[in-house]
Design a protein that fits this description.
The structure is a single chain. By secondary structure, the protein is of the alpha+beta class. The chain contains 7 helices and 13 strands. The radius of gyration is 18 Å and the shape is globular.
Length: 257
């Protein structure tokens, strides 16, 4: 298991965190935002048929030492470990991902974190490829929580529990829902195995790579790289595997060699 101070320091250096570790809500949000700007969301190992491990030591080696990314079962498990080591009470939860789901209701296939700080509970998540809160969301129903140009709100459903919603074009849309039943690390193994191996899993179809940037975000659609900034969207498609690897390294910090 992960445990020592050097591993914590390596983690903080990996995500570029230079703040004060005081257990505050601000520090919690700063850690989350740093994570989303430095660690990419990616499913490249799944596409290459490399089995994923959810063991914290294995994920640490992949994400921190090899400077790769991952998806929710990897990234939120590792982020949860860091937060616990820093003194935050953390509960692992299962979520149903509603955004872009053609066959509702969605299955439980997303890992999120409930984190306590300064006497309140917060939703934290560093494991989504699309746009999501970059700072922690307080678990209070019905209040608008604005983050820059984005706005989020938590609603309550009698069956699905908490529902994280985003405001788009004046309307509120579901991102995902979750209940507060605590989960053990082994509870995520079956869901992760399905995501890795099921023929109808979105993770086995095409590359899913994304990262926040100071100017916007970088993503991949098929083999097309999309660089979003305040100036608009720049797209390009690498012409060979060497160009593809170079673009991954430049735009996501991913080194496949």
């Amino acid at each position: 298991m992960l445990s020592n101070n050097s591993q914590i320091q390596n983690y903080l250096e990996r995500i570029g965190f230079k703040g004060t570790l005081d257990g505050s809500v601000k520090t919690l949000s700063d850690l989350q935002e740093c994570h989303l700007h430095t660690v990419p969301y990616e499913n490249l190992d799944i596409l290459d048929h490399i089995p994923l491990s959810l063991d914290p030591q294995d994920v640490y080696q992949k994400v921190i030492m090899r400077r790769r990314g991952g998806y929710c079962f990897e990234l939120n498990a590792l982020f949860g470990w860091l937060l616990r080591e820093l003194g935050y009470p953390v509960t692992d939860l299962f979520a149903r991902f509603w955004r872009d789901e053609p066959n509702t209701p969605p299955k439980r296939r997303h890992h999120v974190l409930k984190v306590e700080a300064e006497g309140a509970a917060y939703l934290c998540d560093v494991g989504v490829g699309g746009i999501l809160p970059r700072r922690s969301i307080i678990l209070i129903e019905g209040i608008d929580q604005r983050q820059g140009e984005e706005c989020y709100r938590l609603e309550r459903d009698p069956y699905y529990g908490w529902v994280l919603c985003e405001q788009k074009n004046g309307e509120w849309n579901k991102i995902y829902s979750f209940t507060e039943e605590p989960q053990l690390p082994k509870d995520f193994i079956f869901a992760s195995f399905w995501c890795e191996n099921a023929p109808d899993s979105i993770f086995t179809q095409n590359p899913m790579v994304a990262i926040r940037t100071p100017e916007g975000r970088n993503t991949i659609a098929g083999r097309e790289f999309r660089i979003f900034s305040s100036a608009g969207v720049r797209t390009f498609t690498p012409q060979n595997q060497d160009e593809y690897k170079a673009a991954l390294l430049e735009n996501f910090g991913i080194n496949l060699d």
